Amino acid sequence: MQKLSFLIGKWSGEAHVLRGPGEPVELVQTEEAQYKLDGLLLVIEGVGRTKSDSQLALQVLGIISYDDESGAYWMRAFNDGRWLETEVTLAEEGKGMSWGFTLGEYKTRSRLRISEHGHWTELGELSIGNQPPRKFLDLDVRPLGPSILS
């Protein structure tokens, strides 16, 4: 679980989320990641409020654990009254990870990484049937307080 320590802390910035047909919604986004149960779990909570009127528009809670038997990381995420469970793949270069899921003709892929500037960036894409992937999430948050890279 220590390989995920690059996420620990409080983060704030912006996100663009596609919430249906039309233009993406612009959000002021916060993320908080912390270990629980002596490092057995990593809990990540994301909250997005609309830039225009500060209305709550996005709440996400993710719990990541490591399965010793399979040697894999797993995430269970909750959002909008639904949940999913998916395997998480760590980026080979470190400080990043990816995950996704398939449900019928819907397929998602999300990639998170810490940029060279220390920002947590995340890109989520959705494919429906044979259509090309379409961006549904674009996130860029910075650490609050001292840099996690120091």
How would you describe the oligomerization state of the chains in this entry?
single chain
Number of helices: 0
The strand line-up of the biggest sheet is 1-2-3-4-5-6-7-8-9-10
Overall geometry comes to globular
Q: What is the string of SSEs from the N terminus onward?
A: EEEEEEEEEE
Major sheet: 10 strands, antiparallel, barrel
- Alpha-beta classification: mainly beta
Distance between the termini: 20 Å
Would you count the extended β strands for me?
10
What radius of gyration results from the CA coordinates? 15 Å
Mean pLDDT equals 93
Which strand-content bin applies to the residues? over 45%
Helical fraction equals under 10%
Unreliable runs: none
Please name the defining characteristics of this protein.
64% strand, 10 strands, 150 residues, ten-stranded antiparallel beta barrel, mainly beta
Explain the layout of strands and helices.
Layout lengths: L8 E9 L7 E12 L4 E10 L5 E12 L4 E8 L2 E9 L5 E8 L2 E9 L5 E9 L5 E10 L7
Antiparallel strand pairs: 1-2, 1-10, 2-3, 3-4, 4-5, 5-6, 6-7, 7-8, 8-9, 9-10
Summarize the structure.
By secondary structure, the chain is an all-beta fold.
Molecular structure report:
By secondary structure, the chain is mainly β. It has strands at 9-17, 25-36, 41-50, 56-67, 72-79, 82-90, 96-103, 106-114, 120-128, 134-143. It is globular. The protein starts with 8 loop residues before the first strand and ends in a 7-residue tail after the last strand.
